C-alpha cells in the first residue's frame, strides 16, 4: 500500500510518498504503477475555499497513467443540497465519472469526528447551541474505511449504495450525549437557522435512510474516546483553518 502525504508522516505497513494535491508535487511518484486509487483527500474544513477539492481532483486525474480503478468518497446529499462544499464534491464526482477511468463512488453521511468537532464548538460558551429541527446520521470512520477497502479490492461498481450510521438522531440528542460524555452541564438553546441550505438539511436530504450500513453508534464512540475527567479532544478544529 502506498500513501500520499503532504507532510510525509510515516504510516504503519505503508510506503509513504510526500506530495501535495494543491501543487501537484509528488503525484507522479505516488501514482506510478498503482492499480487502485482511493481518493479521500478533502478540504472540507476550509469553508472559505470549497472549490479546492475541484482543483486537487483535476491535478490528480491529470497525473494518472494507465487505467487504475479510482475509488472516490463523497457525501450524501451533494446533488440536492445547495451548499458550496457539497457542490464542489458533486463536481468532483462528475469529473471522476467523465475521466475515462474505471470508477466507484461511495457517498456517506456525517462522520463521528465531524459531529464531535461541531458539538465541541457549539458548547464552548455558557449555553449549548443546537440548530432547531436538524437531524444527523453519524457514521463511524473505521466502518467507512472498511467499506472503502471492500470497494477498492472489488471490481469498479460506479455509484454504490449510500452508507449511513445506524441511527438518525436529533442534533439536540447528540448534544446531550456529548455533554454527558465530557461531564459538562449546559442549558440547550435551540436556534432557528434561516435560509435555503438550512431548509435542505431540515428536510433530511443529507440522510441515508434505509442504508444504515454502519453499526457503531455515536454514543459508543463517545464512551470509547472519553478520557479521565471526560476529556475528548476534537478531531479537527475549524478555527485553526
Question: How would you characterize this protein structure?
Answer:
With 241 residues, the protein is of the alpha/beta class. It has one domain: Rossmann fold (3-Layer(aba) Sandwich). Helices cover 34% and strands 16% of the residues. It is built from eight helices and ten strands. The chain has a four-stranded parallel β-sheet with strand order 3-4-5-8, sandwiched between helices. Strands 1-2 form a two-stranded parallel sheet. Strand 4, helix 3 and strand 5 form a beta-alpha-beta unit. Helix 2 runs parallel beside helix 3. The longest helix is centred in the middle third of the chain and has 14 residues. The two termini are 29 Å apart.
Please describe the topology of this protein.
Elements: E1 2-5, E2 15-18, H1 27-31, E3 36-39, H2 52-63, E4 69-75, H3 84-97, E5 103-108, H4 112-122, E6 128-131, E7 135-136, H5 141-153, E8 158-159, E9 169-170, H6 171-181, E10 188-191, H7 196-202, H8 218-225
Helix pairs in contact: 2-3, 6-8
What are the salient characteristics of this protein?
Rossmann fold, 8 helices, two-stranded parallel ribbon, 241 residues, four-stranded parallel β-sheet, alpha/beta, globular, 34% helix, 10 strands, disordered C terminus
Amino acid at each position: 500500500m502506498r500513501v500520499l502525504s503532504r507532510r510525509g508522516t510515516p504510516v504503519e505497513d505503508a510506503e509513504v510518498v510526500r506530495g501535495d494535491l494543491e501543487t501537484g508535487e509528488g503525484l507522479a511518484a505516488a501514482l506510478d504503477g498503482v492499480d487502485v486509487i482511493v481518493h479521500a483527500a478533502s478540504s472540507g474544513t476550509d469553508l472559505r475555499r470549497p472549490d479546492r477539492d475541484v482543483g486537487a481532483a483535476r491535478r490528480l486525474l491529470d497525473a494518472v497513467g494507465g487505467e487504475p480503478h479510482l475509488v472516490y468518497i463523497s457525501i450524501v446529499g451533494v446533488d440536492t443540497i445547495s451548499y458550496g462544499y457539497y457542490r464542489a464534491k458533486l463536481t468532483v464526482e462528475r469529473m471522476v465519472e467523465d475521466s475515462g477511468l474505471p470508477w466507484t463512488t461511495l457517498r456517506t453521511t456525517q462522520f463521528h469526528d465531524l459531529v464531535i468537532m461541531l458539538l465541541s464548538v457549539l458548547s464552548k460558551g455558557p449555553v449549548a447551541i443546537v440548530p432547531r429541527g436538524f437531524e444527523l446520521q453519524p457514521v463511524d470512520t473505521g466502518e467507512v474505511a472498511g467499506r472503502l477497502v471492500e470497494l477498492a479490492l472489488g471490481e469498479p461498481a460506479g455509484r454504490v449504495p449510500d452508507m449511513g450510521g445506524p441511527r438518525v438522531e436529533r442534533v439536540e440528542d447528540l448534544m446531550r450525549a456529548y455533554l454527558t460524555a465530557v461531564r459538562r452541564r449546559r442549558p440547550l438553546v435551540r436556534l432557528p437557522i434561516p435560509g435555503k441550505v438550512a431548509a435542505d438539511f431540515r428536510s433530511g436530504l443529507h440522510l441515508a435512510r434505509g442504508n444504515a450500513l454502519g453499526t457503531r453508534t455515536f454514543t459508543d464512540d463517545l464512551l470509547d474516546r472519553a478520557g479521565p475527567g471526560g476529556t475528548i479532544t476534537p478531531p479537527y478544529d475549524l478555527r485553526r483553518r
